């Protein structure tokens, strides 16, 4: 077996916990599903998964280690993420039609590529994802075995967990609207999502190499 079962299980459980933990990506997926339906939120999920695949490949090729080692590159990625999260959070708090506005009567159609790109940017600009993959992968790679097959297996597991875990968040967001929430509840969800994104952005700003 290329990767021992106990190693695969440990990688699966570790990544599962990290992905399932609430964060900017989970908030964005939940809000998109609540606003525009479960199917549309899948494009956000695919964007998030695509960003993690990019980070996975960068980590596997050692580029991620170089980015982490470079103060300038790391800071650029970090502050782009901080700015974008603060923008989304403030938009949800202050604008009736912000990107996280949870209002079922204001369905948006088309422009799926923009929804995908939003998910990609949210995840790709999160330096924690960069640090996680660059620190995690070496622990599960056996250099005495063929490396590429190992990376493909671990990447497939990561992609699967992204789809499953964020789909759960999407389902919860979609279900919250299908039961018919009152305007006050919708407003509370809206403002809470905005506040959580701002908090996540501020926490991201404190991340150090």
TrEMBL record:
Regions annotated as coiled coil: none
GO molecular function term, any single one: amino acid transmembrane transporter activity
GO cellular component term, pick one: plasma membrane
Pfam families for the chain: LysE
Subcellular location: Cell membrane
Main location: membrane
Recorded topology in the membrane: Multi-pass membrane protein
Keywords recorded for this protein, A-Z: Cell membrane, Membrane, Transmembrane, Transmembrane helix
Transmembrane segments: 43-69, 76-95, 115-135, 147-172
Protein name per Swiss-Prot or TrEMBL: Threonine/homoserine/homoserine lactone efflux protein
Annotated organism of origin: Cocleimonas flava
Taxonomic path: Bacteria, Pseudomonadati, Pseudomonadota, Gammaproteobacteria, Thiotrichales
